Amino acid sequence: MPSELPPVKGLDAIINSRLRLKHFEVFRQVCELHTIRKAAFATNMTQPAATKLIQELEEMFQVVLFHRNRRGMQLTPHGEALRRHISIVFSDIAHISQELRHVTQGGRGTIRLGIIPSLSPELLARCIHSLLAQHPRIRLSLQEGTTDELLESLRTNDLDIFFGRMLHADFPNDLRVTKIYTETFEIVCAQSHPLAKLHDVRWKDLAGAHWVLPALGSPLRDIAESMFTERGQLRPVVAVASSSFHQMRYVIASGQLLGVLPHSIAKAGEAGGDLAILRPKQVSKIAPISLITRGDIDHLHALLDLERIAIQTAKNLMLA
């Protein structure tokens, strides 16, 4: 089998003229079942016909997709790459069916929106209400997760767009990244905590306390720990690690633990009378909250409106 693919234009011509959805269906079944025989049965065809489709795929792309061992047919690196794209294809097909049913019922499409835990809840609420006011037939489906989790859902077409933090400036060029706002973070404790009564809290006092912090490896955890090492203090004891800032808020408010929370959540807790923001005020910033979507496909007009609404809402809330 040739080790190099034909020129892009030649490959495109081959795919457009020969590739059929049945090729992908058989390939997907072989990936899951690891034998041609089982894949043929699952797709209601003969084993020779299924074998021929796999061979045609390999001929079209000029790569080896499977190798055989004691566990059956296993994917090669080329096969793994093809499987990732095929999973998106079948996700797209399922989404088409859902979208058409929704339009048949009088809707105008669904936006599958991802959100990270640190997103300002007020910004999210205002964006949703403004978008629905402009597009009353649009439906929204929300999914919460880390940026990495939401990015993977975007790549597999389980999301249309999400609020997240791109931690590296050199993000993939197939993404459309629109900056919405950059948020500061605050050191907080319960209103009943002894440190809440002090006007000027020392870093030594903070280092000696027990903390609620995000999980190891997260941007905010790295920032929180670096605050102490930069000032010659030992890193604090992390009693609880949590990926949910809203859960962290209530854990901190109900006990004697300290924590670091996004400014909007910390201020909401302070206004509610259950959190105190400690000084020295920590104003470190991490990567901005952005709206992230695929840049290589056409989008609903409402999706572009969501970007515009989010930018304006952040300005109105003085987050930007």
What would your notes on this structure say?
The protein is of the alpha/beta class. It starts with 7 loop residues before the first helix and ends with a helix. Helix 6 (121-134) links the parallel strand 3 (110-115) and strand 4. The chain has three domains: 8-88, Arc Repressor Mutant, subunit A; 110-182 and 287-316, D-Maltodextrin-Binding Protein, domain 2 (3-Layer(aba) Sandwich); 185-277, D-Maltodextrin-Binding Protein, domain 2 (3-Layer(aba) Sandwich). It is elongated and about 80 Å long. Helix 2 packs across helix 3, helix 2 crosses helix 4 and helix 6 (121-134) crosses helix 12. It is 46% helix and 19% strand. A five-stranded mixed sheet has the order 4-3-5-12-6, with helices on both faces. Strands 9-8-10-7-11 form a five-stranded mixed sheet, sandwiched between helices. The protein has a two-stranded antiparallel sheet with strand order 1-2.
End-to-end Cα distance, whole Å, is 54 Å
**What is the highest CATH level, the class of the largest domain?**
Alpha Beta
Query: How confident is the prediction overall: mean pLDDT?
Result: 84
Q: CATH homologous superfamily of the largest domain?
A: Periplasmic binding protein-like II
Number of strands: 12
- Main beta sheet strand tally, sense and closure: 5 strands, mixed
Shape: elongated
Named at the architecture level, the CATH assignment of the largest domain is 3-Layer(aba) Sandwich
Q: How much helicity do the residues have?
A: 40-55%
Number of domains: 3
Radius of gyration: 25 Å
Poorly predicted runs = none
